[in-house]
Write a structure and sequence with these properties.
The protein is built from five helices and two strands. By secondary structure, the chain is mostly helical. Helix 3 packs parallel to helix 5.
C-alpha cells in the first residue's frame, strides 16, 4: 500500500519536470450538479495529459541495467507520450 511518504518522494522526483496545474472553478458543471466543481487541467502538461507523472516516476526508479534494456509501451496515446518524454 502506498503511503504519504511514497507520494512525497514521487512529488520530489517530479519537481521541475511537471507543470503545476491549478484548480479551475467550473460555473457550468457547478450549476448542473448543484455543487462546487473544480477542474484540474492536466492537458496543460508538456505531454498534454497527467500520464507523464506515473511514467516519469517509474522510469526514475529503474536501475541502470533495466534502463539499458530499453523501454516498451503498449500505448500510442497519452501514456506513450509520457513514456517518450520521460525516456529522453
Amino acid at each position: 500500500m502506498l503511503t504519504l511518504k511514497d507520494f512525497k518522494e514521487a512529488r520530489g522526483v517530479l519537481s521541475g519536470v511537471i507543470r503545476d496545474t491549478p484548480l479551475v472553478y467550473s460555473p457550468a458543471f457547478s450549476k448542473a450538479t448543484g455543487n462546487q466543481v473544480y477542474i484540474k487541467p492536466e492537458n496543460m502538461q508538456l505531454t498534454g495529459a497527467y500520464k507523464i507523472r506515473g511514467a516519469y516516476y517509474k522510469i526514475s526508479t529503474l536501475s541502470d541495467e533495466e534502463k539499458a534494456r530499453g523501454l516498451v509501451t503498449a500505448s500510442a496515446g497519452n501514456h506513450a507520450q509520457g513514456v517518450a518524454y520521460a525516456a529522453q
